[in-house]
Amino acid sequence: MQHMKDKTDNNQDNVIPFIPDGDFYFTKGVEAFQRRKFEIAIKWLKKAVDTKPNDPLYQCQMSIIYTEVGAFHAANQLLTKVLQSTGDQYADCYYLLANNYAHLGLLNDARKYATSYLDKEPDGDFTEEAKSLLNLIDIDEEDYDFELESEDELLIFQETVFYHMENKEYDKALPLLEEMITIFPDHQLPKHDYTQALFFSGNEEEAIQMELDMLNEQPDSLYSHINLAIFYYERNQMQEYVPHIQTLLNVYPIHEQQKLKIATTLARTEYYKEAYSRFRMLVKGLISGHLSYYRWYSITAFHLGETSKALALWEEGCKKHPNLSKEDRPWQ
Protein backbone atom coordinates (compact mmCIF):
# COMPACT_ATOMS: atom_id res chain seq x y z
CA MET A 1 0.00 0.00 0.00
CA GLN A 2 2.86 2.32 0.84
CA HIS A 3 4.38 1.60 -2.54
CA MET A 4 1.07 2.52 -4.23
CA LYS A 5 0.90 5.79 -2.26
CA ASP A 6 4.48 6.71 -3.26
CA LYS A 7 3.61 6.09 -6.88
CA THR A 8 0.52 8.31 -6.62
CA ASP A 9 2.54 11.09 -5.00
CA ASN A 10 5.09 10.93 -7.79
CA ASN A 11 2.36 11.22 -10.39
CA GLN A 12 0.96 14.27 -8.64
CA ASP A 13 4.41 15.84 -8.60
CA ASN A 14 4.59 15.42 -12.39
CA VAL A 15 1.27 17.20 -13.08
CA ILE A 16 1.89 20.52 -14.82
CA PRO A 17 -0.72 23.06 -13.71
CA PHE A 18 -2.69 24.64 -16.60
CA ILE A 19 -2.37 28.40 -16.52
CA PRO A 20 -4.42 29.91 -19.35
CA ASP A 21 -2.74 32.68 -21.33
CA GLY A 22 -4.12 35.46 -23.49
CA ASP A 23 -4.23 33.30 -26.62
CA PHE A 24 -6.41 30.75 -24.82
CA TYR A 25 -8.91 33.44 -23.77
CA PHE A 26 -8.78 34.98 -27.25
CA THR A 27 -9.52 31.63 -28.94
CA LYS A 28 -12.44 30.98 -26.59
CA GLY A 29 -13.76 34.48 -27.29
CA VAL A 30 -13.58 34.01 -31.06
CA GLU A 31 -15.37 30.65 -30.76
CA ALA A 32 -18.17 32.25 -28.74
CA PHE A 33 -18.37 35.11 -31.25
CA GLN A 34 -18.71 32.64 -34.14
CA ARG A 35 -21.60 31.00 -32.26
CA ARG A 36 -23.11 34.53 -31.85
CA LYS A 37 -22.83 34.24 -28.05
CA PHE A 38 -21.76 37.85 -27.82
CA GLU A 39 -21.93 38.36 -24.05
CA ILE A 40 -19.76 35.28 -23.46
CA ALA A 41 -17.38 36.41 -26.21
CA ILE A 42 -16.95 39.82 -24.56
CA LYS A 43 -16.12 38.14 -21.21
CA TRP A 44 -13.41 35.98 -22.80
CA LEU A 45 -11.95 38.88 -24.78
CA LYS A 46 -11.83 41.07 -21.68
CA LYS A 47 -9.77 38.34 -20.00
CA ALA A 48 -7.48 38.23 -23.04
CA VAL A 49 -7.02 42.02 -22.98
CA ASP A 50 -6.32 41.93 -19.22
CA THR A 51 -3.57 39.37 -19.91
CA LYS A 52 -2.03 41.42 -22.74
CA PRO A 53 -3.33 45.00 -22.44
CA ASN A 54 -1.31 46.23 -25.40
CA ASP A 55 -2.11 43.46 -27.90
CA PRO A 56 -3.83 45.27 -30.82
CA LEU A 57 -5.30 42.05 -32.23
CA TYR A 58 -7.26 41.39 -29.03
CA GLN A 59 -8.57 44.95 -28.97
CA CYS A 60 -9.61 44.87 -32.64
CA GLN A 61 -11.53 41.63 -32.12
CA MET A 62 -13.18 43.10 -29.03
CA SER A 63 -14.24 46.14 -31.08
CA ILE A 64 -15.86 43.88 -33.70
CA ILE A 65 -17.96 42.20 -30.99
CA TYR A 66 -18.95 45.61 -29.59
CA THR A 67 -20.06 46.59 -33.11
CA GLU A 68 -22.22 43.45 -33.35
CA VAL A 69 -24.08 44.34 -30.14
CA GLY A 70 -24.50 48.00 -31.16
CA ALA A 71 -21.96 49.43 -28.70
CA PHE A 72 -20.40 51.59 -31.43
CA HIS A 73 -18.84 54.20 -29.13
CA ALA A 74 -17.06 51.52 -27.07
CA ALA A 75 -15.82 49.91 -30.29
CA ASN A 76 -14.51 53.23 -31.59
CA GLN A 77 -12.63 53.92 -28.35
CA LEU A 78 -10.74 50.63 -28.72
CA LEU A 79 -9.98 51.18 -32.40
CA THR A 80 -8.74 54.73 -31.79
CA LYS A 81 -6.50 53.40 -29.00
CA VAL A 82 -5.02 50.78 -31.36
CA LEU A 83 -4.26 53.40 -34.02
CA GLN A 84 -2.63 55.70 -31.47
CA SER A 85 -0.51 52.95 -29.93
CA THR A 86 0.63 51.25 -33.16
CA GLY A 87 1.28 54.28 -35.33
CA ASP A 88 -1.31 53.32 -37.97
CA GLN A 89 0.12 49.81 -38.44
CA TYR A 90 -3.38 48.32 -38.19
CA ALA A 91 -4.99 50.12 -41.14
CA ASP A 92 -8.09 47.87 -40.93
CA CYS A 93 -9.07 50.01 -37.92
CA TYR A 94 -9.86 52.86 -40.32
CA TYR A 95 -12.48 50.79 -42.13
CA LEU A 96 -13.94 49.47 -38.86
CA LEU A 97 -14.21 53.05 -37.57
CA ALA A 98 -15.87 54.17 -40.81
CA ASN A 99 -18.43 51.36 -40.52
CA ASN A 100 -19.25 52.27 -36.92
CA TYR A 101 -19.62 55.98 -37.64
CA ALA A 102 -21.94 55.16 -40.53
CA HIS A 103 -24.16 53.15 -38.18
CA LEU A 104 -24.23 56.13 -35.82
CA GLY A 105 -25.38 58.37 -38.66
CA LEU A 106 -22.15 60.42 -38.49
CA LEU A 107 -21.59 60.30 -42.23
CA ASN A 108 -18.81 62.90 -42.47
CA ASP A 109 -16.70 60.90 -40.01
CA ALA A 110 -17.57 57.68 -41.83
CA ARG A 111 -16.44 59.15 -45.15
CA LYS A 112 -13.21 60.47 -43.60
CA TYR A 113 -12.18 57.09 -42.17
CA ALA A 114 -13.25 55.09 -45.24
CA THR A 115 -11.16 57.42 -47.43
CA SER A 116 -8.19 57.09 -45.04
CA TYR A 117 -8.45 53.30 -45.26
CA LEU A 118 -8.43 53.34 -49.07
CA ASP A 119 -5.47 55.74 -49.08
CA LYS A 120 -3.47 53.42 -46.83
CA GLU A 121 -4.73 50.06 -48.18
CA PRO A 122 -5.82 50.45 -51.83
CA ASP A 123 -5.77 46.64 -52.19
CA GLY A 124 -6.65 45.72 -48.59
CA ASP A 125 -9.06 43.12 -47.22
CA PHE A 126 -11.81 45.73 -46.85
CA THR A 127 -11.22 47.70 -50.07
CA GLU A 128 -14.49 46.66 -51.72
CA GLU A 129 -16.46 47.19 -48.49
CA ALA A 130 -14.95 50.67 -48.06
CA LYS A 131 -15.86 51.64 -51.63
CA SER A 132 -19.41 50.33 -51.16
CA LEU A 133 -19.69 52.27 -47.92
CA LEU A 134 -18.65 55.51 -49.65
CA ASN A 135 -21.25 54.88 -52.37
CA LEU A 136 -23.94 54.29 -49.74
CA ILE A 137 -22.97 57.50 -47.94
CA ASP A 138 -23.25 59.46 -51.20
CA ILE A 139 -26.70 57.98 -51.93
CA ASP A 140 -27.83 58.59 -48.35
CA GLU A 141 -26.72 62.21 -48.37
CA GLU A 142 -28.62 62.95 -51.59
CA ASP A 143 -31.77 62.84 -49.46
CA TYR A 144 -30.34 65.44 -47.09
CA ASP A 145 -28.80 67.81 -49.62
CA PHE A 146 -29.92 71.41 -49.13
CA GLU A 147 -28.56 74.94 -49.03
CA LEU A 148 -26.95 75.81 -45.69
CA GLU A 149 -28.75 79.13 -45.43
CA SER A 150 -32.14 77.36 -45.41
CA GLU A 151 -31.10 74.64 -42.94
CA ASP A 152 -32.97 76.12 -39.95
CA GLU A 153 -36.16 76.60 -41.95
CA LEU A 154 -35.97 73.06 -43.32
CA LEU A 155 -35.35 71.66 -39.85
CA ILE A 156 -38.51 73.29 -38.48
CA PHE A 157 -40.53 71.86 -41.37
CA GLN A 158 -38.98 68.40 -40.90
CA GLU A 159 -39.66 68.25 -37.16
CA THR A 160 -43.29 69.36 -37.58
CA VAL A 161 -44.00 66.98 -40.46
CA PHE A 162 -42.24 64.15 -38.63
CA TYR A 163 -44.53 64.64 -35.61
CA HIS A 164 -47.70 64.61 -37.72
CA MET A 165 -46.62 61.57 -39.76
CA GLU A 166 -45.64 59.57 -36.66
CA ASN A 167 -49.04 60.33 -35.13
CA LYS A 168 -50.95 59.55 -38.36
CA GLU A 169 -52.17 63.16 -38.62
CA TYR A 170 -52.02 63.12 -42.42
CA ASP A 171 -54.44 66.02 -42.97
CA LYS A 172 -52.11 68.28 -40.95
CA ALA A 173 -48.97 66.98 -42.69
CA LEU A 174 -50.22 67.48 -46.29
CA PRO A 175 -50.23 71.32 -46.50
CA LEU A 176 -46.80 71.48 -44.83
CA LEU A 177 -45.40 68.91 -47.24
CA GLU A 178 -46.81 70.81 -50.23
CA GLU A 179 -45.02 73.93 -48.98
CA MET A 180 -41.78 72.01 -48.39
CA ILE A 181 -41.83 70.60 -51.92
CA THR A 182 -42.27 74.12 -53.32
CA ILE A 183 -39.48 75.64 -51.20
CA PHE A 184 -37.07 72.68 -51.44
CA PRO A 185 -37.83 71.09 -54.84
CA ASP A 186 -34.60 69.06 -54.90
CA HIS A 187 -35.22 67.50 -51.51
CA GLN A 188 -36.57 63.94 -51.97
CA LEU A 189 -37.91 62.87 -48.57
CA PRO A 190 -40.87 65.30 -48.45
CA LYS A 191 -42.11 63.90 -51.77
CA HIS A 192 -42.26 60.37 -50.35
CA ASP A 193 -43.90 61.58 -47.14
CA TYR A 194 -46.39 63.47 -49.31
CA THR A 195 -47.45 60.38 -51.27
CA GLN A 196 -47.91 58.45 -48.02
CA ALA A 197 -50.02 61.23 -46.47
CA LEU A 198 -51.96 61.45 -49.73
CA PHE A 199 -52.62 57.70 -49.80
CA PHE A 200 -53.88 57.54 -46.21
CA SER A 201 -56.04 60.63 -46.79
CA GLY A 202 -58.00 58.68 -49.40
CA ASN A 203 -56.21 59.70 -52.63
CA GLU A 204 -54.80 56.23 -53.26
CA GLU A 205 -54.58 56.21 -57.07
CA GLU A 206 -52.82 59.60 -57.20
CA ALA A 207 -50.34 58.54 -54.48
CA ILE A 208 -49.45 55.30 -56.26
CA GLN A 209 -48.97 57.04 -59.62
CA MET A 210 -46.71 59.70 -58.08
CA GLU A 211 -44.60 57.05 -56.39
CA LEU A 212 -44.34 54.99 -59.60
CA ASP A 213 -43.18 58.13 -61.46
CA MET A 214 -40.48 58.74 -58.84
CA LEU A 215 -39.38 55.10 -58.97
CA ASN A 216 -39.10 55.39 -62.75
CA GLU A 217 -36.72 58.34 -62.29
CA GLN A 218 -34.79 56.62 -59.46
CA PRO A 219 -35.10 52.80 -59.77
CA ASP A 220 -33.03 52.27 -56.59
CA SER A 221 -35.15 54.58 -54.42
CA LEU A 222 -35.57 52.86 -51.06
CA TYR A 223 -38.48 55.12 -50.12
CA SER A 224 -40.41 54.35 -53.32
CA HIS A 225 -40.15 50.61 -52.66
CA ILE A 226 -41.23 51.16 -49.04
CA ASN A 227 -44.29 53.22 -49.99
CA LEU A 228 -45.35 51.01 -52.89
CA ALA A 229 -45.06 47.89 -50.72
CA ILE A 230 -47.35 49.52 -48.14
CA PHE A 231 -49.79 50.93 -50.73
CA TYR A 232 -50.24 47.69 -52.65
CA TYR A 233 -50.50 45.65 -49.45
CA GLU A 234 -53.23 47.97 -48.13
CA ARG A 235 -55.15 47.55 -51.40
CA ASN A 236 -54.60 43.77 -51.36
CA GLN A 237 -52.84 43.96 -54.74
CA MET A 238 -50.43 41.18 -53.86
CA GLN A 239 -49.02 40.64 -57.35
CA GLU A 240 -47.84 44.27 -57.44
CA TYR A 241 -46.80 44.19 -53.77
CA VAL A 242 -44.41 41.21 -53.95
CA PRO A 243 -41.51 42.70 -56.01
CA HIS A 244 -41.29 45.74 -53.71
CA ILE A 245 -41.25 43.75 -50.47
CA GLN A 246 -38.72 41.33 -51.98
CA THR A 247 -36.45 44.28 -52.74
CA LEU A 248 -36.68 45.46 -49.13
CA LEU A 249 -35.90 41.99 -47.76
CA ASN A 250 -32.53 42.19 -49.53
CA VAL A 251 -31.62 45.73 -48.41
CA TYR A 252 -29.61 46.48 -45.25
CA PRO A 253 -29.06 50.26 -45.10
CA ILE A 254 -26.49 51.98 -42.90
CA HIS A 255 -28.70 54.84 -41.70
CA GLU A 256 -30.69 54.00 -38.57
CA GLN A 257 -33.84 55.82 -39.73
CA GLN A 258 -33.80 53.84 -42.98
CA LYS A 259 -33.36 50.59 -41.05
CA LEU A 260 -36.40 51.52 -38.96
CA LYS A 261 -38.44 52.30 -42.09
CA ILE A 262 -37.75 48.81 -43.44
CA ALA A 263 -38.53 47.16 -40.09
CA THR A 264 -41.87 48.97 -39.76
CA THR A 265 -42.76 48.24 -43.41
CA LEU A 266 -42.14 44.53 -42.88
CA ALA A 267 -44.29 44.66 -39.73
CA ARG A 268 -47.08 46.59 -41.47
CA THR A 269 -47.21 43.94 -44.18
CA GLU A 270 -47.15 40.99 -41.75
CA TYR A 271 -43.57 39.87 -42.32
CA TYR A 272 -43.29 39.64 -38.54
CA LYS A 273 -40.35 37.23 -38.26
CA GLU A 274 -38.22 39.31 -40.63
CA ALA A 275 -39.37 42.54 -39.01
CA TYR A 276 -38.42 41.24 -35.55
CA SER A 277 -34.82 40.55 -36.57
CA ARG A 278 -34.60 44.05 -38.11
CA PHE A 279 -35.97 45.70 -34.95
CA ARG A 280 -33.42 43.83 -32.83
CA MET A 281 -30.57 45.17 -34.99
CA LEU A 282 -31.54 48.81 -34.36
CA VAL A 283 -29.56 51.05 -32.01
CA LYS A 284 -32.42 52.01 -29.71
CA GLY A 285 -30.85 55.24 -28.49
CA LEU A 286 -30.87 56.60 -32.05
CA ILE A 287 -34.54 55.92 -32.83
CA SER A 288 -36.38 56.04 -29.48
CA GLY A 289 -37.79 59.40 -30.60
CA HIS A 290 -39.90 57.56 -33.18
CA LEU A 291 -43.36 56.59 -31.96
CA SER A 292 -43.53 54.11 -34.87
CA TYR A 293 -40.62 52.15 -33.35
CA TYR A 294 -42.64 51.29 -30.24
CA ARG A 295 -45.93 50.83 -32.12
CA TRP A 296 -44.68 48.35 -34.70
CA TYR A 297 -42.03 46.59 -32.58
CA SER A 298 -44.73 45.89 -29.98
CA ILE A 299 -47.19 44.64 -32.62
CA THR A 300 -44.46 42.43 -34.13
CA ALA A 301 -43.50 40.94 -30.75
CA PHE A 302 -47.16 40.24 -29.95
CA HIS A 303 -47.76 38.38 -33.21
CA LEU A 304 -44.68 36.22 -32.57
CA GLY A 305 -45.95 35.22 -29.12
CA GLU A 306 -43.59 37.54 -27.19
CA THR A 307 -46.47 38.95 -25.14
CA SER A 308 -44.48 40.30 -22.19
CA LYS A 309 -42.00 42.02 -24.55
CA ALA A 310 -44.88 43.50 -26.53
CA LEU A 311 -46.46 44.86 -23.34
CA ALA A 312 -43.17 46.32 -22.08
CA LEU A 313 -42.49 48.03 -25.43
CA TRP A 314 -45.99 49.48 -25.57
CA GLU A 315 -45.82 50.82 -22.02
CA GLU A 316 -42.39 52.36 -22.60
CA GLY A 317 -43.66 53.88 -25.84
CA CYS A 318 -46.68 55.41 -24.07
CA LYS A 319 -44.39 57.07 -21.52
CA LYS A 320 -42.21 58.60 -24.24
CA HIS A 321 -45.06 59.30 -26.67
CA PRO A 322 -48.39 59.89 -24.83
CA ASN A 323 -50.36 59.81 -28.10
CA LEU A 324 -49.59 56.09 -28.42
CA SER A 325 -51.84 55.43 -25.41
CA LYS A 326 -54.81 56.67 -27.50
CA GLU A 327 -54.30 53.84 -30.01
CA ASP A 328 -55.66 50.31 -29.73
CA ARG A 329 -53.15 47.92 -28.22
CA PRO A 330 -52.29 44.96 -30.48
CA TRP A 331 -53.86 42.47 -28.02
CA GLN A 332 -57.21 44.30 -27.85
From TrEMBL:
Highest rank taxon of the organism: Bacteria
A Pfam family the protein falls into: TPR_19
Alphabetical keyword list: Repeat, TPR repeat
PANTHER family: LIPOPOLYSACCHARIDE ASSEMBLY PROTEIN B, TPR REPEAT-CONTAINING PROTEIN PA4667
Positions of TPR repeats: 22-55
Protein name: Tetratricopeptide repeat protein
InterPro entries attached to this UniProt entry: CellSynth/LPSAsmb/PSIAsmb, TPR-like_helical_dom_sf, TPR_rpt
